[in-house]
Design a protein that fits this description.
By secondary structure, the protein is an alpha+beta fold. The chain is built from 19 helices and 19 strands. Pfam families: SBP_bac_1 (PF01547).
Length: 431
């Protein structure tokens, strides 16, 4: 069903595999593992982390190697020349993939559907590993058609960031951030300072940063996928309502003026939230390190994404995992490492060093995240967080939703019609 009627897609895939095989010829030396003379099996682990992220991965590898006398993990950084996805596909197509690979959970659906990942279900069942200790969204994102294909490692979440000093300046209580859409609109109006068509300070931009339609569609109580029917539901009435609200906002504040503001905005220390030009935005926990680096005295808070009712708060999350590519030479030994990385010990080492959120609640507590006034808000929302639908056409859905938002806020179509069109296109691709 999932790749049916995709003749053109099959041609593209065949061409891509041919290109991948060419890349593979230049990289096959990095996949070699095997058994040494002393009986130690060496397995290769590809990853794309650098800096502190690479140090965290190496720490997990070292801890595993110390515990296993008969298995040695060799971590290999692979993103120096070509993207890891292309290189990994090249290795799988060439029949000599690494034993383990770092992997974006968002791609599990498409890769599992095309047979590029090893089914881990039997391994997990044998060792009594279930999704019980993981946040529901993380385990769901690692599975496809009720089979486990990845071991989730880290995660993220999206919340409303707000500048407390800007709140004070606008006569708002900095300890009472908006909880409802109405309160958000009222705060945005008071926070906005405009001179002609130029914003000196803008209160809020719904689609800025992490203000994706997933963020607002779920906040409005909508759904993007019907599991039982196996159909995308991008035109869910609540999702449509959320896009209608974004469109109304674009008209009220003049989308062209907003675009002028965002196009001229900087990054790093010139991020508009740091310079005080943007009072509120939807952002992720990864922004925290940048704020600490560029403006450690920034007086800000975070709160759940507002909803129409001020209740039923939610978010959405992604993150990385470890997988065993199809055709790995040492799948049994690879599973031992995958299992370790997904354990509390492996999670604590990696997420503790990299300062990222674990997919295991008890690990986040051990790392002290629940005691931090900012991090704790992210931890608190994780049990209610969603994952993007695990589909072979997940990327197409993402692109269609993004296009619908862009067209709607610029007046190029009605939200309902745009989402209906997106829905039809993705569901046709899934047939």
């Amino acid at each position: 069903m999932l790749w049916k009627n995709h003749n053109l897609k099959k041609v593209y895939l065949a061409v891509f595999i041919m290109i991948a095989l060419t890349l593979f010829a230049c990289s096959s030396d990095e996949t070699s593992g095997g058994e040494d003379e002393d009986g130690v099996t060496t397995i290769t682990f590809w990853h794309e982390n650098s800096g502190v992220g690479e140090e965290a991965i190496n720490a997990v590898v070292d801890a595993f190697n110390e515990k296993h006398q008969d298995i040695k993990v060799d971590a290999v950084y692979t993103a120096a020349n070509e993207s890891q996805n292309e290189k990994l596909l090249a290795a799988v197509a060439g029949g000599n993939p690494p034993d383990v690979s770092w992997f974006d959970r968002f791609k599990v659906g498409s890769w599992a559907d095309q047979g590029s990942l090893t089914d881990l279900t039997a391994y997990a069942e044998k060792d009594g590993i279930t999704g019980d200790k993981y946040y529901p969204f993380a385990w769901e994102e690692a599975t496809y058609q009720d089979k486990l294909y990845a071991m989730p490692v880290d995660t993220d979440a999206r919340l409303l960031f707000y500048n407390k000093d800007a709140f004070k300046d606008a006569g708002l209580d900095p300890e009472k951030p908006p909880k409802t859409i109405d309160e958000l609109e009222e705060a945005a109006e008071k926070l906005t300072i405009k001179d002609g068509n130029r914003f000196k300070r803008i209160g809020f931009i719904p689609w800025y940063n992490q203000g994706w339609l997933y963020s607002w569609g779920w906040a409005y109580g909508g759904n993007f996928y019907d599991e039982e029917a196996g159909k995308v539901t991008a035109d869910d009435p609540k999702v449509v309502e959320s896009l209608e609200w974004m469109t109304k906002y674009a008209k009220e504040y003049n989308v062209e003026d907003i675009t002028g503001f965002t196009d001229s905005s900087g990054s790093g220390e010139m991020d508009p939230f740091l310079t005080g030009q943007l009072a509120m935005h939807i952002g992720g926990n990864w922004s925290i390190s940048g704020y600490l680096k560029y403006k450690p005295d920034l007086n800000y808070g975070v709160t759940p994404i507002p909803t129409p009712t001020g209740e039923n708060f939610t978010s959405w999350s992604g993150g990385m995992a470890v997988v065993i590519p199809k055709g790995a030479e040492h799948p049994d030994e690879a599973w031992e490492f995958v299992k370790f990385f997904g354990s509390e010990e492996g999670q604590e080492i990696y997420n503790g060093m990299y300062k990222t959120l674990s997919v295991i609640d008890s690990v986040n507590e051990k790392l002290g995240y629940k005691d931090d006034p900012i991090f704790s808000e992210f931890i608190n929302i994780l049990p209610e967080s969603h994952n993007r639908p695990v589909l072979p056409e997940g990327e197409l859905l993402w692109n269609e939703l993004s296009n619908a938002v862009d067209n709607a806020i610029h007046g190029n179509g009605k939200p309902k019609d745009l989402l209906k069109s997106a829905n039809e296109k993705v569901n046709a691709a899934l047939e």
